[in-house]
Amino acid sequence: MKRRKPAINCHRFKATVAAVLSMSATAHADNAPVTSSSTPAAQAIEQPASVSAVPVAVPGGIYALALPEGVTGVRYRKRDAYIYNGTALIGISLKASVGTHELTLTRADGSEQRLFFDVADKNYPEQRITLANPNMVSPPPETLKRIREESAKMASAYRRYTPVEESPVPFVQPLDGIMSSPFGRKRFFNDQPRNPHSGIDLAADTGTPIASPSGGVIALTGEFYFNGKSVFVDHGGGMISMMCHMSEILVAQGDKVSRGDTLGLVGATGRATGPHLHWTVKLNGNAVDPVTLMALFAPTPPTTSIDTPLSEPTESPSPGS
Ligand SMILES: [Zn+2]
């Protein structure tokens, strides 16, 4: 397949969209085919070796952009995007508004260009959880300082941006377990609305080893009020995994880990109704579905191409203005 360079200087620049991803746990089961856009300015774009794709960017989804010639960086809401194999993967917040979103592309010579893409709506199902301990629904005032300090620490771990040292392929599930709660569900604890589910839950016995999904550096460990014993792995490129509710942590901050290394053991510490692993992955600070990433970084992605463009970023949200 021949790769045609996009005409980056033309007025109506059409970017080389390799794929727009929005795969959820359920969509993953459909094994959606790889797609590749075909537009007058960007035809027959080669699919990067290990990136598969599904249409439409949605809250909690991933927007994938094949980098046009000369582009070395992509920024979204002041955060650098994850870049691997010539494709930028942009995490879209579960709380993102539907409509036009902006990216800034940067080139080696320092020049910048704005691009726009559309985020479509996605309605995640509800999950209602009953907790015996009311302090896990509405924390007592004396714990608020602790919770604030912990969230500052976690936010700082999620802000890291280090080089990708090890290929993310394959991005492996940390343990064999039944998915007891998929990503994105709107959650109610004892009928009170709380943040949507920012990761996936894998039910497993207490003491089951939890493996690192990919290589990285331990960015943070600790025992947190809601998350219990937790480990943050910085995979590089602003991709951070967080594993929590552990019974035991077996790594320390600063440790280098490889794919498959044991990070800790399954438990039910923090806000948990039973032993399970909660696994969050953030890209550019936004939680995305780990199932999507495992599909994206599968060792043998499907190779089918579709010629129909799915959606194209545009140069301006109101062309001609
Ligand atoms: Zn969870």
Provide the gyration radius in Å. 20 Å
Q: State the major sheet.
A: 8 strands, antiparallel
Helix/strand structural class: mainly beta
What is the count of helical runs? 3
Our estimate of the beta-strand percent is: 25-35%
Number of domains: 2
- CATH class of the largest domain, please? Mainly Beta
* Termini Cα gap: 37 Å
CATH architecture of the largest domain: Distorted Sandwich
User: For the record, what is the CATH homologous superfamily label of the largest domain?
Assistant: Glucose Permease (Domain IIA)
How helix-rich are the residues, as a percent range?
under 10%
N-to-C order of helices and strands:
EHEEEEEEEEHEEEEEEEEEEEEEH
Output mean pLDDT.
Answer: 80
CATH topology of the largest domain: Glucose Permease (Domain IIA)
Q: What overall geometry do the principal axes of the alpha carbons give?
A: globular
Low-pLDDT sequence parts: 1-55, 304-312, 314-321
The tally of beta strands, per DSSP, is: 22
Bound ions, cofactors and other small molecules, one mention each: zinc ion
Plain-language structure description:
The longest helix is centred in the middle third of the chain and has 15 residues, at 144-158. The strands form five sheets. Strands 10, 13, 15, 16, 17, 19, 21 and 22 form an eight-stranded antiparallel beta sheet that branches. Strands 1-2-6-5 form a four-stranded antiparallel beta sheet, with no helix packed on it. Strands 4-3-7-8 form a four-stranded antiparallel beta sheet, with no helix packed on it. The chain is mostly beta strands. The chain has two domains: 19-119, Peptidoglycan hydrolase domains (Immunoglobulin-like), CATH 2.60.40.1590; 126-296, Distorted Sandwich (Glucose Permease (Domain IIA)). It has helices spanning 25-29, 144-158, 290-296, and strands spanning 19-21, 62-66, 71-76, 79-80, 82-84, 87-91, 99-107, 112-119, 126-129, 178-181, 186-189, 192-194, 200-203, 209-211, 216-224, 228-234, 239-246, 248-249, 256-257, 262-265, 276-283, 286-288. It is globular and about 55 Å long. The chain binds zinc ion (ZN). Zinc ion binds next to loops.
